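Case study 2.
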Amino acid sequence: MMSVLSQQISAEEATQPALEIQGRIATITLRKPAFSNRLSPADLAALRTHIETVNQADDVLVLRLRSDGKYFCSGYDISSLASESAPSSLYFGETIDLLENVRAVTIAAVQGGAYGGGTDLCLACDFRIGTPQANMFMPAARLGLHFYPGGMRRYLSRLGVNAAKHLFLTAERIEADEMLRIGFLTELVAADQLTARVDALSGLLAGMAPLALWGIKQDLNRLIAGTFDEADNARAVLRSEASDDMREGARAWKEKRAPRFRGK
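Prediction:
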């Protein structure tokens, strides 16, 4: 009996989101292609653990999200909602809030369909690079599900009220070119160029000054959320001006070479 249970646990863990860290770049991979990379409560718990690991890793400046298979993510496993012990969709939203506010700069590699909460997983990322195979729709109203607050805020701030209302209230599917037009995607590249483009952007971001990179991302998010604090911002500005990184950046600019930042 224990052997069967262990095999079940092992099989479940093998499909949960995986984290890999190489130097300043971390990658989370969704690994449920047979189920359109939908996220169960256990998957969300794994995501939370990975996000905390990245937050604690001082060297990590970039976090990429990618998926195995044809689909990027089909959102919350709504069959979980039928279980009395499963958390509500609010738990999903709180997890995506954590991703939005992770310290590292985030990139979603959107190689295929993003549906429901999977669209919010994309919008929580700072950059969203897609391919012509990408498409999306938001079926909440069709399913009878009211959406959680963070997701609606992200739709409004990234896409604007007209696009947000259209997508939420009609549940219509849109394709990659329209996703780019309304700002859901920040870039659109050929499928065979997706990995190279994500790698290039990751390398560019990883070469930035850590204190400035983290601080600017945080304050941009705070401005969107209405939680911006001018006093905190002023302290961050003064801290950056007194940092070794600022001095190194100035030297590198003068010497016409790549800077070597240390986050100090």
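Residues 41-56 form the longest helix (16 residues).
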